[in-house]
Give the backbone structure.
Amino acid sequence: MTSRAMPEPAGALATVQGPSVAVTVIAAWLIPGAGHLLHGRMSKAMWFFLLLSLMYAIGLGFAGRLFPFQLAEPLVFLAAIAEWSLGAPRLVALAAGGGAGDVTSVTYEYGNTFLIVAGLLNMLVTLDAADVASGRKPR
Amino acid sequence: MTSHLGVLILFAAFVSAVFAVLMRDVAAEQVRFGSRVFLSLVLGAYAAGWLMYVAF
């Protein structure tokens, strides 16, 4: 009796070698591009690190505010989630006492926009890294 | 930098670069896609600003 290979069902995940999805997501959240780096995507990792870190730094330089988790103010709460989506830069800014925000500065709102969007973009980058780690996206 | 247009261009450049690297794998395609996103963001914001100027 000959054995025949069973065809893979549609939507099956490819076998992936390397760090697990959880490790990839934590690394990608902590350092922008680290998730891609763990899976050998050096060029993408470098660009994500450079662009997102610089965006965060520009946001702080523009006197943007690092928002606290404040449930009474839904928009402030959502902004805090977005800004915490870049783990290490947020922790460094917290430790350094940066991101107090200066509402009188002309660039205050621009700074907030850069900080929030950098975090949101890192959410997308993290999801992309998770797809690579789970095999949903080819390496 | 306090120029609205200058900050808009800076912001659009960063966002389009991240999307280009995220969505495309080949360098030439990244440049093409990134340029399209960049122009869409800048021209879209410019058009929206002009419409608001006319309407209000």
